[in-house]
Write a structure and sequence with these properties.
Shape: globular
Order of helices and strands: EHEEEEEEEEEEEHEEEEEEE
CATH superfamily of the largest domain: Hypothetical protein, similar to alpha- acetolactate decarboxylase, domain 2
Structural class: mainly beta
Largest sheet: 13 strands, antiparallel
Number of domains: 2
CATH topology of the largest domain: 60s Ribosomal Protein L30, Chain: A
Distance between the termini: 33 Å
Helix content: under 10%
Number of helices: 2
CATH class of the largest domain: Alpha Beta
Number of strands: 19
Radius of gyration: 18 Å
Length: 297
């Protein structure tokens, strides 16, 4: 789907490939809350996959808070070393004994195997806080942990090569329903937003297209700089972010997206706040789960 044309965004990034006409891809699914057990003695990628599989699901969305780790390796955004990409990753940083303070992850598939994509904030044993992209095969939980998650049925994020950005990226795809939806299940949209598309407008456009009036918005991705509602503007062209709290509500009969994010950019600066609508273009991708709010009984 396309996003309605509005005034030009303040920043723009040029990727090596031709611009893909479809700027937003969205797939209808259903979600339901589950509680999953994350084992130790394996990578966090395997632990998350096993946790969903035990509930009968291929994947979903998880928010991790205050999770102690035995090993925790991560990268941060960085400038691209050559013209094959518009942005890249830093060297790998190791934080043994670190604690995941707050992080968001999507669990899907890559090359027909479980794979997760996680952005967040973590703290080392000396109290230093860093942010970035968790390396899922180089991180292990310290102890068995029970977490609340959102299981997805009818769709899944699957990694595909993207010619525009020259990255392998999660792409929402239809899947057979894993289990019969329970009464607690909600209609949802699994979506990706492409570069140079305003994130708030894209979420609003998806909700209009699927007749969703009110929703919770979860996800992670990257932006070309950032403009917050408090007036803060940052211009570094690549970042790693996750949505701390996201909603779509009706204002004067129109859906309004309020996305409160946390991010680290390629200068290493941490920031957080409410995105200012119409001023925040996606850098590489944004992976979004929009969960329709059920009407009050």
């Amino acid at each position: 789907m396309t996003v309605t044309e509005e005034p030009a965004l303040p920043r723009h990034i040029v990727h090596p490939g031709s611009v893909t006409p479809e700027r937003v891809r969205a797939v209808v699914c259903h979600v339901q809350p589950v509680r999953i057990s994350l084992k130790t003695g394996c990578t966090i990628n395997e632990a998350i996959a096993q946790g969903f599989a035990q509930q009968g699901f291929e994947g979903g969305y998880v928010r991790l808070t205050q999770v102690p780790m035995r090993t925790l390796n991560y990268v941060m955004p960085a400038a691209a070393p050559d013209e094959s990409h518009a942005a890249w990753y830093s060297e790998t940083y190791a934080m043994p004994g670190g604690v995941i303070l707050d992080a968001a992850l999507h669990a899907g598939r890559r090359e027909d195997k479980p794979f997760l994509h996680c952005h967040g904030a973590w703290q080392d044993t000396e109290g230093r806080i860093e942010m970035g992209h968790l390396l899922p095969f180089e991180a292990e939980l310290l102890e068995e942990t029970i977490v609340d998650a959102v299981a997805i049925s009818g769709a899944l994020f699957v990694t595909r090569h993207d010619t525009e950005t020259n990255f392998s990226l999660f792409n929402p795809e239809k899947r057979p329903d894993a289990v019969t939806a329970e009464a607690s299940a909600s209609r949802a949209i699994l979506a990706t937003v492409r570069p140079n598309t305003d994130l708030c407008r894209a979420v609003e456009e998806i909700c209009r297209a699927f007749d969703i009036r009110d929703a919770q918005v979860h996800g992670l991705g990257s932006l070309v700089g950032v403009d917050y509602e408090d007036g803060t503007t940052l211009t570094a062209h690549a970042s790693e972010l996750y949505i701390r709290n996201g909603t779509v509500t009706q204002q004067n009969g129109t859906g309004h997206a309020a996305l409160d994010i946390a991010m680290v950019d390629l200068t290493g600066r941490h920031s957080r706040g409410l995105l200012k609508r119409g001023l925040n273009p996606v850098c590489v991708t944004a992976e979004i789960l929009i969960v329709e709010s059920k009407p009050a009984v």
